[in-house]
Amino acid sequence: MIRLLIADDEKTIRETICSIIDWKSLGIEVVGLCKNGLEAYDAILDEYPDIVLTDIRMPKLSGLELIKKITQNHDHIQFIIMSGYNEFSYAREAMHYGIKHYILKPCSETEIIEAVKDCIKEYYRSLSIEKLQKSTFLSEEKLMFNILFQTFSSNQDLIMLPGIFESYIDFYHTSYQLYHIFFLEEYVVQSCIEKICCLFRDHSVPFSFSFIYVKNTLIFFYIDTGKNYASLDNALNNLFQSSDYSLCTFQRDSFPSLLAMLEILYKKVKRFETIYLYSGAQCTIICNYDFMFQQLADISDKLLQVQSESSRRELINELKKLLSSVKDINLLRSMINSLVVKAAQSSTSCSPNEITDIIQFVNTITVNSEICNFIFDKLDSLFSIDLVNQKKYKPFIQEILNYTNAHISDPNLTLKWIVENHLYMNVDYVSRQFVLQTGQKFSSYLNEIRIKKAKQLLISCDSEKIYHVAEQVGCGNNPQYFSHLFKKYTKLTPKEYIAKMKTSLNHDI
């Protein structure tokens, strides 16, 4: 769902806007109600909304100041301004920042809804294929292949899939379109797939190119960008006019999330004895691999809890025997991908980049024995007793902390930017993990270390040079914002803090 944040210093207005409109029917989740600009800024850092509905005049940070700070961060957030002041200067400055919607108070429910609908349309138009198909440790084709392979080749509960892959793909919020092509003979499946791939490229539709074939039915899906797919449906209809596909019909269904779609697919496809999974020109036949995946899960779970070295060594040998017995190379790769990701999420031994390198390399090896030899060398480090028992932050959380401390002077620093441009992971997953492991939201952590550094700098600073400190701790050229932030955490303004510290030092001398 699209995320909306509402900011207004009048409690009645912000709460009325939140409650009077059926946001869920518009596909919108309200992620925050803020009473001032400073609170809204922190909420944006933590909740990364897609749309912000904000009053123009608020304490601590005005709507325009808020917009200025956020647009500098290139976060593609769309703003709707509400104002009771019918002055052209505000509208003109708002347009300077690309704001298209400027609503005068008092405004009606209809005006707000129409403005939000326009923002929703713009949101979908701005989505690029690169962003939708962005994946770290695998190309989306390989990523989706592994998800489908694990879905249909094991009896593992589907709710476990996000635990393995959620850091790389969204399972809950991104909607999908699912196609069934019926009455397709097996001998023309490959040629049909090639033609469908061409159609999707011609229509610039983001597509994973993973296909499922069971009982004369070809199934495929893609991320829903909110486009009108009538032309694509027509193109498929034209394709099925040819003699090879003359008996074919198709059906398209919408799903609100990847997990919801997989749950339906699992029920429909799992009942077949043989499942053909296509990735590009390669076809993998899925039979009953449930037992092997269950064994893998059992051994890896025990390895993550083992206390003695002798027991660990026995489990490692058991794991090696299991992997060595796998004949199908795609099954072997999928098992190793699952194993490595699971181990990495439970220890601090490997960073996300190292996990990326391991899985990418495994997918380039074409001989089973070479894959096994490579991963066997990694098992000791992945399942080390010392590393398993450590209570440190997960490696990607530690990377965030390190990066934040090293770039504290950057006024555009946000968790969303770090995750998407430095870690290349799923923002929702990392945000939840950050709170679980550190006990606080990223904005609070960021503000705390900014204030800590500011205190150190202010001790040797004259009150006339406070703006230098503001720049060094990431508040840019906005001393007023720095002053509000500093007082929020210390109950003193920067000038009062300088005076207090100098008095204290003089007293000590």
Question: Could you characterize the architecture of this molecule?
Answer:
The chain is α/β, with parallel strands linked by helices. Helices cover 55% and strands 13% of the residues. The chain has a 6-stranded antiparallel β-sheet with strand order 9-6-8-7-10-11. A hairpin with a 2-residue loop joins strand 10 and strand 11. Helix 12 runs antiparallel to helix 13, helix 12 packs parallel to helix 14 and helix 14 packs antiparallel against helix 15. The radius of gyration is 27 Å and the shape is flat. It starts with a strand and ends with a helix.
Write the SSE topology:
Layout: E1 2-7, H1 11-20, E2 28-34, H2 37-47, E3 51-55, H3 63-71, E4 78-83, H4 88-96, E5 101-104, H5 109-126, H6 129-132, H7 140-153, H8 161-165, E6 176-182, H9 189-202, E7 210-214, E8 217-223, H10 230-239, E9 249-255, H11 258-269, E10 275-279, E11 282-286, H12 290-303, H13 309-324, H14 329-345, H15 352-362, H16 368-382, H17 385-389, H18 395-406, H19 415-423, H20 427-438, H21 442-459, H22 466-472, H23 479-490, H24 494-508
Parallel strand pairs: 1-2, 1-3, 3-4, 4-5
Antiparallel strand pairs: 6-8, 6-9, 7-8, 7-10, 10-11
